[in-house]
Write a structure and sequence with these properties.
This protein has 177 residues and is mostly helical. Helix content is 79%, strand content 0%. 30% of the residues are buried.
């Protein structure tokens, strides 16, 4: 069965003679692909057990989000030396800080941050995931503890959604004549 982009990605990484766990780890670390791409590849191409694939790629895909939460504040001054990043950060912070500058608005945002950030990370679609969750938590100045909890909950939610989709795919393929 030909699966387009997945075939190309896996074959490219296989050509480098990497072990399958490293291929899955690298795919899990890729922004916009992360766990939602790594789990199906681990299960369908490498024949991993679904639980192992979810656990492994979930832990690996969580790493960039945690790095962003804990270290982006230290990297920001260096990023701002690049004009593109400086403009993007200025626009993002101008909008979020203006909108949430008043203490009441900030408290309201902090109350909703955990659940909204977890939902953002859990949705298995483009532009969501731990990378995005980490960046959003930074831009909206979500307290680090809340951001970490939200990322963890979101990755668990994403794992449930991906497991359901992989199982549905396997079942539907098994029903073909």
């Amino acid at each position: 069965m030909h699966m387009g982009f997945a075939d190309t990605l896996v074959n490219s990484l296989r050509s480098l003679n990497m072990p399958d766990w490293l291929v899955i780890a690298l795919i899990s670390l890729m922004p916009f692909i992360e766990m939602r791409g790594a789990v199906p590849i681990a299960v369908l191409f490498y024949h991993w057990d679904l639980g192992v694939a979810l656990l492994f790629s979930g832990i690996v895909s969580l790493i960039p989000g945690l790095v962003i939460v804990f270290y982006l504040d230290r990297l920001e001054p260096h990023l701002r030396k690049v004009k593109l990043f400086d403009r993007a950060l200025n626009k993002a912070f101008e909008w979020t800080r203006k909108k949430h500058a008043e203490p009441d608005a900030q408290k309201k945002r902090d109350r909703r941050a955990l659940i909204l950030l977890a939902i953002l990370v859990a949705l298995p679609g483009p532009g969501t995931g731990a990378w995005t969750g980490g960046l959003v938590s930074y831009v909206f100045e979500v307290p680090k503890k809340k951001a970490v909890v939200a990322l963890l909950l979101g990755v668990v939610g994403e794992a449930v959604a991906i497991a359901a989709l992989v199982l549905l795919f396997q079942w539907s393929v098994s029903q073909l004549p």
